[in-house]
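TICKET #2291
ISSUE: user wants both folds in one file
ATTACHMENT 1:
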Amino acid sequence: MIKIFKESIRKALGSANVFPTVLTPKAEMLQFIKQLQPKTTNHPLIRLGPDGDGGYLVPDDLEGIEACFSPGVSLISGFESDCTRRGMKAFLADKSVDRPGEENDRFHFTKKFVGAVSSSDFMTIDDWVASSLPSTNSDLLLQIDIEGAEYEVFLSASEALMRRFRIIVVEFHSLEQLWNKPFFNLAKRAFDKIQKIHSCVHIHPNNCCSAVERDGIEIPSVMEFTFLRTDRIEKSSPQTKFPNPLDFDNTPNPTMILPKNWYSQG
């Protein structure tokens, strides 16, 4: 009888376009967040790109990085331009635009999306790197902002390629959905894959969107994470002060400070 009642409730909610799901237990959420709390390292953070949207904090450990790979192209390419000023090539990709927002002799643009499978409109990140740099095995930098497709990109990337990325800067989307257990499981696998080789060194909430608070845990919907390959870290300690003086708001919306759950309180 209870089973029939539950099924009738699910059907009624589905007819109203409401789809209930299992909630992520609070203890699992807290453990997930704790593992992402940023570290200070022997490489101080610097800012590449503009003082606003499109600029990111990265460790000052750029010497010897051959190229920046940057899927997701907007009207602003200041981050990629700063990478080229540091001697890197810059590879950009986006099917939705015809060219980057600015001209640069060191820019190499591909009119495709980056995803989990290569096709006429998509390419995997492994295929992209292999076709762009076919004869090198040097360190790379990845900066990725592709409106939610980042999860599939990381889950489909090879471990060999992940080890080539000395620095990863990624804007993660829909983080409020971490309370949705199926989404949490998928997102956690993507974060775990990154953290197998890299350590989180900075988080900045994008004030484009709001945050969701539940059970005393506040989760901004969109956040920018910076990771450094762990073998580049000689010493580290918990980062206890946010925001960083080099952080800037992404939009004119009210400033959003990283919630305290997301970093060590000392």
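ATTACHMENT 2:
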Amino acid sequence: MAESTRLVDLVQDGINRFLDEREPELRDIADELTAFTHHARALLRGGKRFRALFCYWGWQSTQISAGAFDPLADHSDPQIDAVVHAAVALELFHAAALVHDDIIDNSDTRRGGESIHRTFETIHRDGGWSGSAESFGRSAAILLGDILLAWSDEAFDEGLARTASSAARAAARGEHHRMRTEVMLGQYLDIVNEQAWRTYPESEQLPRAHRVILYKSAKYSIEAPLAIGAALGGGTAADLAALRAFGLPLGIAYQLRDDLLGVFGDPSMTGKPSGDDLREGKRTVLVALARAALPPNATRLFDELLGERDLSDLQVRMLQDTIKDSGAIESVERIIVRNVEQAKSALESATITARARMELLNLAESATARTA
């Protein structure tokens, strides 16, 4: 646990240092561009750092000869510098994805504060600028998300430059490219599901929701960081396959927990209003299971309300009660348990360090039993 804590501190230091280095470049162009680093810092401050942690323990899992040695105790080794840079890159990429996701979902809040596009709207209004504050906020946030994507590539390249093995560099780069492509395609599938769901047969609702989970979240949140870390560590194809067998079901369980929190989470813990996913019309596995269990008249009312941006608190509670009464929560909880068990089982036969196995099992619990 101390090793993971040290990693989180190193990643935060790495993020701060990275932004410190970019800020003069922006200021040299125009003072107002430092708004990008300012708001990036706020977004990247704190957080659970799951992607960074899974990346590190994916790397650590391949260090069979390391024994009980904690490499973070002396992180002057270029290998450690490489994996920390990769972890920083994953956090920058995640921040970019959050900015763009909030624009797509028209979300007002993120982590208890204003979402980035709303923050830029406020800047516009407070400045008394001409034109549409909403349009400015959206445009500025898109650009900040884009520059965070570019910066994530820079940070990743810095990590690769510290990796001695050309084979490890190529493998890690390939995993990184795959992750970026899959999450963007998964985001598109999510948008399609929200807006085209009426055109699909009822029998496709659940499989389509499951596919979104795979590509928008499960692979990107856990499987890809594990594979990137293992590739940086020189892991074999068998090593990566074993970690994928652990990471994919765990990633599914992770997102299913997120879906439950998106409907029933405590706003003081999640940083978002209760039932936010209901207002956004998310066609999740939870929603698909609830609809499948409802009688036709209840399904029609449920569909009429789901996705209405102006749902009252009473209507949100009504939808929440409908989902509860359908038995969908219990079904999702069972799926979470089943996937966590599958992940743990896969880890038992994996040829990895004992310390990595223990930490990955701990992460499996914290990623799927969380309240935020």
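RESOLUTION: both attachments delivered.
EXTRA DETAIL ON ATTACHMENT 2: Residues 2-368 form a domain with the Farnesyl Diphosphate Synthase fold (CATH 1.10.600.10).
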